[in-house]
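Reading a protein record of the kind used here takes only a little practice. Each token is a code from a learned vocabulary of local backbone shapes. With that in mind, consider the following protein and its fold in token form:
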Amino acid sequence: MDSSTTAAPGIDRKRCRLAGDLERLHHVPLFKGITSDVVRMFAYLSERKNFRDGDYLITQDEQAQHAFLLVNGAVHISVNHREQEVLLQKLGDGVLFGELALLANFKWFFNAVCVGDVDVLAISRMSFQKICEKYPDQKDTLIERLIQLRVDRLVSQTDFMLDQLLYRDVKGAAALI
């Protein structure tokens, strides 16, 4: 078999992956109404990564360099506090998280632990900056949406934690009766 016939399946798989990633990105709130060229650039510059059940996709106190789009699977967002790992939120397919890593240089303040096998698209801060330089007219919209995503996540995490506290209080009160 010559090299031209062995290269085609790899090229086709890459095109298929890019087409699928582009379709996924179009459904992410960050990219709604953003020009197709910009979304296509994100699909091209993102990296597909696979993790197994129990893997730490993000580890608290490590350098933040990527945002992640959950393609398949789920992660639990937790924080190490007073020698305990506290669950903050559960995320599933189609969710973009770690978005602040696209805007700032910092260490992760939470963990993201895989629940089952997980596939993600990783978007690096460097890629985000390159895209903003190439499409400066889209930069403000992208940054505003990233901030809004973080605010929405904070509200969701707060609701989740308060629900856990209320459930624990109700369960504890029932045990006392």
In short: The chain has one domain: 47-172. The radius of gyration is 19 Å. Confidence is low (pLDDT under 50) at residues 1-5.
